[in-house]
Amino acid sequence: MVACRTRSLVTVFLALALVWALAGWAGAQSGEPITIRYWQYYYETKVKAIDQLIEQFEAENPGIRVIHETFPYEAYGARVAAAVPAGQGPEVVNLFYGWLPAWVRAGYLEPLPIDAAEIEREFVPMVRAAFMNGEYWGLPTGVRTLALFYNKDLLNQAGFQEPPQTWDEFIAAGQAMAERRGPFYTRLGFGFGPAGQDHHLIREVLIRQFGGQPYDDENRRVLYNSEAGVKALEFYTDWQLKHGLGDVEFFPGRADYRDGFIAGLIGMIIDGSFAIATIRNGVGDQFAWGVTELPVFDPNDRHNFGSFWMNGLTARAFEDPAKLEASLKFLRFITSEEAMKLWLEQVGELPARLSLADDPELAEDPVYGPFIRSLPYSHATFFVDEEGQRRVMVDAINRVLLEGTDPATSIRIAAEEEQRILDQFWNR
Amino acid sequence: MVRLTLSARKALWAYIFLALPLLFFIGIRIIPTLQAFQMSLYDWHVQPEARTFVGLGNYERMLADQRLHQAFRNTLWYGLLGVPAQLILGLAFALLLHSIRRFRGFFRAVFFAPYVAPAVAVSWVWSLLLSPHLGIVNQVLHWLGLPPQPFLTSPQQALPTVTAVVVWQFVGFHILLFLAGLESIPRLYYEAAQIDGASRWVTFRYITLPLLNPTIVVSLVMATAAPSIGMLQLFTHVMNLKFNDPGGPLGSTLTVVLYTYQRAFQAYDMGYAAAIVVVLFVILLIISLIQIRLTSREVEY
Question: What are B156-169's pLDDT values in tens digits?
Answer without folding.
Answer: 999 999 999 999 99
